[in-house]
Q: What sequence folds into this?
């Protein structure tokens, strides 16, 4: 494990920081550390929320104070920090987290992807080339956030990077696949937004009736597959 | 069934919130004022049962089954069959009774707690309404005229105590911790942020409050923050220089610098602030924040234990 940094988000939430830059090694370390902490939770641990370079631990300070006995630490925050530090230091490096590969079918262009032509024009490509590049990569799900089931993906080819729209759309359809700068993503719900929309998937990402309620999890890899609108779907 | 005759300004079914799913981007939701909600339920000898949260203007409701209710939170003028009824005291309800709630006079949010809680579908462990995703609570939306919300008939004996909650809301200043990006701001900006007077703007809802101050708070050099977890009470500073205070329906993650964090023990007071109301800050240490939380939690647990016997 690298040298961990701790920063308190609140009196009930603690960031465990692994690095300051987005990279796959950091992502793997975060996933491993979360797996270890889930195996060995402390009393009062409520939930863990990963992001690009850290994870956030939500805990109940009242339970921590009553249950975690440490001589030198007075505050619950110190107790939690000490617990996580010694837990992660004493764990041997485990095998890399097994990553699932998920295929996301996308209807590119037309009314499903109204900005496909603009993305092509800006990058001096044909729409077909944009689709070919977008479907050729595997993307890593670094984290979920912003909206339920919304994946923050890494690994987009810079050749199709496109700035956000100057004027955001009032409504982006659920399932829309978009590009913003060097990022690509999928909107699980209809929301306003400024992303360049190149296509749409019919695969629901947010599954409130299921547990977990999200098709994707941090650590998954996804691949976009171009499909044509068919009579049977 | 509870029949909604008038829904009030903005009424939703809420409980203590949906925890454990933020890693999937599912927000916590839940009541804004957890102290009022807990005491309201405790008077009915129950814990974390779904209630109706009313905002600024209460609603009018007809009860189609016998039960008992408690009105908690911001003080409002309320009547049952035109007879005034108190806050924080069990009100026995017979079939056909009509509860009229007026404007909330002292605070911003009031709760209608009911024996056994409202019987709405539990999704991901909670009955809270998540409006943006259209699920949870009552049909995933605010209450509307003629809605019928289920509850179980109850003839249980009830307390005749009235709880005075003034002590929980007395303190004038809202206590803050330094935020995770506090040190990205210059000492002058830090001082300005703590000392200047803010008011809650008209853009204030369950998701968060935009705060208005005379002078903007800005960073000396741009600071690029990656999206990471945010929580209730987090104060973010977007490039506009006017802070955003996150509340119950906040997103799970955010990318604006976090200048400060309201301590857990003061969140219920913030929940009762109204648009245009002033807000004064006081910086405290993490140790003080924990102490204040333990004190509040002990008082609430003691009250819950006493009322449960």
A:
């Amino acid at each position: 494990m690298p040298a961990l940094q701790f920063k308190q988000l609140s009196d009930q939430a603690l960031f465990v920081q692994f690095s300051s830059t987005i990279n796959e090694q950091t992502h793997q370390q975060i996933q491993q550390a979360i797996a270890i902490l889930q195996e060995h939770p402390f009393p009062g641990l409520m939930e863990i929320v990963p992001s690009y370079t850290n994870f956030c631990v939500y805990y109940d300070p009242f339970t921590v104070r009553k249950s975690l006995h440490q001589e030198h630490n007075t505050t619950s925050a110190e107790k939690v920090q000490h617990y996580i530090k010694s837990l992660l230091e004493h764990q041997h490096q485990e095998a890399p987290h097994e990553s699932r590969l998920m295929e996301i079918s996308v209807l590119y262009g037309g009314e499903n992807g109204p900005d496909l032509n603009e993305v092509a024009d800006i990058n001096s490509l044909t729409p077909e080339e944009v689709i070919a590049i977008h479907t050729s990569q595997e993307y890593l799900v670094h984290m979920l956030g912003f909206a339920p089931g919304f994946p923050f993906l890494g690994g987009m080819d810079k050749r199709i990077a496109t700035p956000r729209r100057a004027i955001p759309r009032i409504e982006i359809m659920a399932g829309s696949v978009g590009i913003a700068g060097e990022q690509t993503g999928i909107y699980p719900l209809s929301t306003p937004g400024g992303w360049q929309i190149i296509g749409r998937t019919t695969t629901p990402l947010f599954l409130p009736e299921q547990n977990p309620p999200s098709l994707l999890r941090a650590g998954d890899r996804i691949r976009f597959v171009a499909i044509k609108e068919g009579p049977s779907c | 069934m509870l029949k909604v005759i008038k829904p009030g300004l903005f009424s939703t079914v809420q409980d203590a919130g949906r925890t454990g799913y933020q890693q999937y981007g599912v927000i916590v939701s839940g009541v804004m004022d957890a102290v009022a909600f807990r005491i309201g339920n405790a008077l009915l000898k129950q814990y974390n049962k779904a209630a109706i949260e009313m905002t600024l203007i209460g609603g009018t409701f007809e009860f189609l089954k016998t039960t008992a209710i408690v009105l908690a939170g911001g003080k409002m003028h309320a009547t049952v069959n035109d007879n005034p009824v108190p806050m924080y005291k069990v009100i026995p309800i017979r079939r056909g009774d009509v509860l009229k709630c007026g404007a909330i006079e002292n605070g911003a949010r009031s709760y209608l707690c009911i024996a056994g809680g409202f019987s709405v579908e539990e999704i991901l462990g909670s009955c809270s309404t998540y409006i943006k995703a259209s699920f949870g609570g009552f049909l995933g939306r605010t209450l509307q005229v003629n809605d019928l919300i289920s509850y179980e008939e109850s003839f249980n004996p009830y307390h005749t105590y009235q709880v005075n909650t003034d002590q929980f809301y007395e303190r004038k200043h809202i206590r803050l911790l330094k935020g995770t990006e506090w040190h990205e701001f210059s000492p002058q900006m830090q001082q300005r942020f703590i000392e200047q007077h803010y008011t809650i703007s008209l853009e204030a809802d369950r998701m968060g409050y935009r705060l208005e101050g005379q002078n903007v708070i800005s960073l000396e050099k741009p600071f690029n923050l990656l999206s990471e977890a945010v929580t209730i009470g987090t104060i973010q500073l977007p490039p506009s220089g006017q802070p955003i205070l996150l509340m119950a329906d906040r997103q799970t993650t955010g990318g604006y610098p976090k200048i400060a964090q309201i301590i857990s023990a003061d969140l219920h007071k913030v929940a009762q602030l109204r648009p245009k109301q002033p807000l004064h800050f006081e910086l405290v240490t993490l140790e003080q924040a924990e102490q204040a939380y333990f004190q509040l939690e002990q008082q609430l647990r003691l009250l819950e234990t006493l009322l449960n016997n």
About this structure: Chain B has two domains: 2-167, 171-301. Residues 265 and 294 of chain B are 8 Å apart (CA to CA).
